[in-house]
Design a protein that fits this description.
The protein has 657 residues and is α+β, with helices and mostly antiparallel strands. The protein has three domains: 2-131 and 250-318 and 591-652, no CATH class; 319-350 and 476-590, HAD superfamily/HAD-like (Rossmann fold, 3-Layer(aba) Sandwich), CATH 3.40.50.1000; 352-474, 3-Layer(aba) Sandwich (Calcium-transporting ATPase, cytoplasmic domain N), CATH 3.40.1110.10. It contains 24 helices and 22 strands. α4 (81-101) runs parallel beside α9 (256-283), α6 (136-142) runs antiparallel to α8 (235-249) and α18 (479-488) packs across α23. The longest helix has 36 residues, at 582-617.
């Protein structure tokens, strides 16, 4: 799909530039244009052929794509923009060629080439705007390893293709490697990053008897996994199928301009027929009847209609990009203004998606000193909690001494020699294993923070806890304002997360979100969105992980946080580059203002017909007022200028204010 959009975009761009260059001689030698601008084109042998020859070339080179696409609309019996353009182009061409051979005074050659040029420009702009990569399924496939280490009976391993694995095989998953297939841990212990499936930022401990999911990443220790599902039966493949299914359902839309063009096609035919019949009755059939009828059919396709939507789309796309919003699906951006329910993923969307220190409690140390010692002890650890402590110390400008020694206490914490003393960092399991004392004040602090679903680790020195830090997935500063602004617009805000209910409730309460769904798997996220849609809701979903991909594609508008996984970005219709939830508000403002401009432009473009077609048909002929082909072309050009100017006014509107 993306390659098709790209090839069409390049084709329309090339044809626009070539046709525009070829149109210049037509305009220069046109008697109407030269008369209007007051100059005399040079006369030389064959100069009278310049206009028709170049017009024929433009018609065959630039006009034929519209005729081919009109054929599809004709076969489908759904007249739209292509049939309307083709009607005007063919009528103008045939009439002008006939007039040339009959040596008639009026032709439509210059109108013909400018109409083709402007329609090529409009479709080039549109193709560039609607081009959307649809690589979500490929991105999902890339999460799977290509090979696996299969255990043999003698305890050795052999490297095999993942596709060769069978149910019952045993595979060795080393630290840093991805689990090659769904299975059950039968030996070893480690922590596994399952955020792509559950959305939870904290790694999950795995030991004998636990389930392992294909595509998840082993963090530290080695695991032996017995394969229970491969290929199409894995959880990741299930997500992939959900993406494919929902992606097909979300692509059935039709542009507003095409619907307007479809009606105008019938209006043009009816107006042409009525014009021919009425003038034949009034004056008899002659050249005037043909000229009146042709004028009606040609000006029934206003240049402005071809630019009414693409110009607004181009400006909207540019403004969105400058506000950190990338539009991957134009239709979704147009319609997201209709959002009834805005569903946010929690981890990485409303929150930072990484652990952070929320509070520090000490006994006889200063907070800075406690963080310095803990960061030093965790200096060489790759655990997410260690990273969070080090990052917090760095953000506070605390100097972190280098430890003299470091060792990992598997599954419980770390110990290190720092500034001449031995310190330990870990949770309650470490205190129990080492028989360390935890003062009542720190114990109360740990119980209180655990009640808020936060993780607490202690700093131990001389056999006693001297400090404790609470860690949690940090809520983004902009999230509360974004939620408030959406609710002020009458939009229901909901939250989906794979995290536990206490964690979800804590975040929802802090942000003022009434509706939340906790402990939901990818398939359940997709089902929740479907349920809301079945209730008649227009649902927008914002997320950042692989686990959000099915829901993003299922949604009426899928919005990806820019720092999210490639799969989430590929599955989304709109990407918020700056990870700012307030961009969701700016997105809605842009959608609403752009839609208003589109409607205004379409009303003007079609309103032009309501004025020009009756005059071209001769309704005012008894009053001595008949719209000539040249005057009709001038009005058509004026309509284009007005539509272009109105589209530019969109730039003056600041979204999110």
């Amino acid at each position: 799909m993306a390659d098709d959009h790209r090839s069409h975009e390049l084709m329309f761009r090339r044809k626009f530039f070539v046709s525009t260059v070829l149109s210049l001689p037509v305009l220069y030698f046109s008697s109407f244009v030269s008369g209007l601008l007051g100059y005399s084109p040079p006369v030389f042998p064959g100069s009278k052929l310049v206009v028709p020859v170049f017009s024929i070339v433009v018609f065959l080179y630039g006009g034929l794509p519209f005729l081919r696409m009109a054929r599809d609309e004709f076969i489908d019996r759904e007249p739209g923009m292509m049939m309307l353009i083709s009607l005007a182009v063919v009528v103008a061409f045939v009439y002008s060629m006939g007039s040339l051979f009959l040596e008639a005074q009026s032709t439509f050659f210059w109108e013909l080439v400018t109409l083709i040029d402007i329609m090529l420009l409009g479709h080039w702009i549109e193709m560039r705007s609607v081009r959307k990569a649809s690589g979500a399924v490929d991105e999902l496939a890339e999460l799977m390893p290509d090979t696996a280490e299969r255990l043999l009976e003698d305890g050795s391993t052999e490297e095999v293709e993942v596709s060769d694995l069978e149910e019952g095989d045993q595979v060795l998953v080393r630290p840093g490697a991805s689990v090659p297939a769904d299975g059950e841990v039968i030996d070893g212990g480690s922590e596994v990053d399952e955020s792509m499936i559950t959305g939870e930022s904290e790694p999950v401990e795995k030991e004998e008897g636990d389930k392992a999911v294909a595509g998840t990443v082993n963090m530290e220790g080695s695991l032996t996994v017995e394969v229970t599902a491969t290929g199409e039966e894995t959880t990741l493949s299930g997500i992939k199928h959900l993406v494919e299914e929902a992606e097909e359902e979300s692509s059935r839309t039709q542009a507003l301009a095409d619907r307007a063009a479809g009606w105008l096609f019938y209006v043009a035919l009816a107006s042409g027929a009525v014009t021919a019949f009425a003038w034949t009755l009034a004056t008899g059939f002659d050249v005037t009847v043909i000229e009146r009828t042709v004028t009606v059919l040609v000006i029934a396709c206003p240049h402005a209609l071809g630019l009414a939507v693409p110009l607004v789309v181009a400006i909207n796309t540019s403004m969105a990009a400058s506000n950190g919003i990338l539009i991957r699906d134009r239709t979704a951006m147009e319609e997201v203004r209709n959002t009834d329910t805005f569903v946010f993923d929690k981890t990485g969307t409303l929150t930072e998606g990484e652990m952070g220190v929320t509070e520090v409690e000490t006994t006889d140390l200063r907070e800075e000193q406690a963080l310095s010692l803990m960061a030093a002890a965790e200096y060489e650890s790759e655990h997410v909690i260690a990273e969070a402590i080090r990052r917090s110390a760095q953000e506070r400008g605390i100097e972190i001494p280098e430890p003299e020694s470091f060792s990992l206490i598997k599954g419980k914490g770390v110990k290190a020699d720092v500034e001449g003393g031995k310190v330990y960092v870990g949770g309650p399991n470490l205190a129990e294993a080492q028989e360390f004392l935890v003062p009542e004040s720190l114990e109360s602090f740990a119980d209180e923070r655990a009640g808020e679903s936060e993780t607490v680790v202690f700093l131990f020195r001389d056999g006693e806890a001297v400090a404790a830090v609470a860690l949690a997935d940090v809520i983004r500063q902009e999230s509360r304002e974004a939620v408030d602004r959406l609710q002020e617009r009458g939009i229901e805000v909901a939250m989906l997360t794979g995290d536990s209910e206490p964690v979800a409730r804590s975040v929802a309460d802090e942000l003022g979100i009434d509706t939340f769904f906790a402990e939901v798997l990818p398939k359940e996220k997709d089902e929740k969105v479907r349920e809301l849609q079945e209730d008649g809701e227009y649902v927008a979903v914002a997320g950042d992980g692989v686990n959000d991909a099915p829901a993003l594609v299922r949604a009426d508008a899928g919005i990806s946080i820019g720092s999210g996984t490639d799969v989430a970005v590929e599955s989304a219709d709109i990407v918020l580059v700056d990870d700012d939830p307030m961009d969701a508000v700016r997105m809605l403002d842009l959608s609403a203002s752009s839609y208003r401009k589109m409607r205004q432009n379409l009303l003007w473009a079609t309103g032009y017909n309501a004025f020009a077609i009756p005059l071209a048909a001769g309704v005012a002929a008894p009053l001595g007022l008949v719209l000539s082909p040249a005057a009709g072309a001038v009005i058509m050009s004026l309509s284009t200028v007005i539509v272009s100017f109105n589209a530019q006014l969109l730039r003056r509107q600041e979204p999110g204010t």
